[in-house]
């Protein structure tokens, strides 16, 4: 297997001085790949030189991934301190964050979590794999107090040494403006959807200005995402003529161009693949020929507001449609306690 020396992979310093690699591996099997396929790929990825892994309780594979981490520790491939393990509290556990975190630590067999995220900023639960049109009557709009209650539970986990850094995910600027002065411990990172045709420039800039590291999910435009997240109007980022042309000039797959663009722009991409040739070349993209300024500028023009995870299943009774989740008019839709 081809390997990348992890010491050569550029590192990013978070707002509290902790460092993490500029690329990680995603672990969501998109309902298509089994937990074994994903965890085998994690094992291969560790050997290939990956040190950052993006997990989540709701991906349903943390116990299998934990077996792989343990084997890597036992076999001396890596030490715990060499890995950056991220995971997330799912929407149905916002009132029981410590329980969720401790279960992830036990499943992942990792003693502590490097970055612990609030996966979605509201407690709206839907059954795994449910239809996009299904609505949970208990779903509610974003509440500042409820979000902060969940956040404070993670701050307590930092105090206890179970969590090293706090992460937020699927946020918007209006929501961040409401909560930014209420943190005792600043969030270190924000996971958000980022790919060439969905760049979220304003939110990206807001995070950078506030020293919160953007972590880009679906960095390749998630060609294998679940059917429920596909609309006929969605654009396939890697198939745009510009991405194909830049890739041809470099003699690589457009996936590699997506990742080079992401790293050079300053977000941390977390591409997923169970295929060794793909995950190795994804990691390799960070240490090979960079994109030119012209290529970076050309990709900057590809923004098409191509949001792939609309989040329909999190809508509350009375919400119009998925646009309500993303505060597109600059105010938090239906928020009971925004100031
Ligand atoms: N915070 C959140 O709410 C959130 C939401 C979504 C995702 N995420 C995280 O982000 C991660 C990545 O998102 P994603 O898996 O949906 O999308 P992605 O990384 O954009 O796309 C993954 C797909 O791209 C293909 N691929 C990967 N490397 C390739 C390469 N070098 N050449 C050609 N094709 C390649 C693979 O398809 P084939 O299998 O066909 O090869 C793979 O299934 C997830 O695994 C998860 O950890 C977080």
Describe the structure.
The longest helix has 16 residues. The protein has one domain: Alpha-Beta Barrel (TIM Barrel), CATH 3.20.20.100. Strands 3-4-5-6-7-8-9-10 form an 8-stranded parallel beta sheet. A two-stranded antiparallel ribbon has the order 1-2. It has 339 residues and is an alpha/beta fold. α1 runs parallel beside α2, α1 packs across α9 and α2 packs across α3. β8, α6 and β9 form a beta-alpha-beta unit. The structure holds NADP nicotinamide-adenine-dinucleotide phosphate. NADP nicotinamide-adenine-dinucleotide phosphate binds next to α9. The site of NADP nicotinamide-adenine-dinucleotide phosphate has 29 residues, from α9.
- Proportion of beta-strand residues: 5-15%
* Tally of domains: 1
What is the assigned CATH homologous superfamily?
A: NADP-dependent oxidoreductase domain
Number of helices: 10
Low-confidence stretches: none
């Amino acid at each position: 297997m081809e390997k990348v020396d992890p010491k050569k992979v550029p590192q990013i310093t978070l707002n509290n001085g902790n460092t993490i690699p500029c690329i990680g591996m995603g672990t969501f099997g998109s309902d298509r790949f089994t937990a074994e396929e994903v965890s085998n790929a994690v094992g291969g990825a560790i050997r290939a030189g990956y040190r950052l892994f993006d997990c989540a309780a709701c991906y349903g594979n943390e116990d299998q991934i934990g077996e792989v981490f343990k084997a890597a520790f036992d076999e001396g491939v890596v030490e715990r301190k060499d890995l950056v393990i991220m995971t997330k509290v799912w929407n149905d556990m916002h009132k029981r964050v410590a329980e969720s975190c401790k279960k992830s630590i036990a499943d992942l067999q990792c003693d502590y979590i490097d970055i612990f995220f609030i996966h979605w900023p509201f407690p709206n639960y839907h059954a795994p794999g449910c239809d996009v049109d299904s609505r949970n009557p208990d779903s509610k709009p974003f509440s500042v107090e409820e979000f902060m209650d969940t956040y404070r539970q993670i701050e307590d986990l930092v105090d206890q040494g179970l969590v090293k850094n706090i992460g937020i995910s699927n946020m918007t600027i209006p929501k961040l403006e409401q909560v930014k002065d209420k943190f005792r411990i600043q969030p270190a990172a924000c996971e958000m959807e980022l790919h060439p045709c969905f760049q979220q420039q304003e939110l990206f800039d807001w995070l950078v200005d506030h020293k919160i590291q953007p972590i880009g999910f679906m960095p390749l435009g998630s060609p294998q995402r679940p059917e429920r997240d596909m609309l006929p109007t969605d654009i396939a980022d890697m198939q745009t003529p510009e991405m194909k042309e830049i890739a041809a000039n470099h003699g690589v797959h457009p996936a590699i161009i997506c990742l080079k663009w992401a790293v050079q722009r300053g977000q941390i991409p977390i591409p997923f693949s169970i295929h060794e040739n793909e995950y190795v070349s994804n990691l390799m993209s960070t240490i090979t020929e960079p994109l030119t300024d012209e290529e970076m500028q050309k990709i900057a023009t590809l923004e098409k507001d191509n949001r792939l995870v609309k989040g329909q299943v999190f809508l509350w009774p009375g919400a119009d449609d998925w646009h309500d989740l993303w505060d597109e008019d600059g105010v938090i839709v239906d928020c009971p306690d925004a100031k």
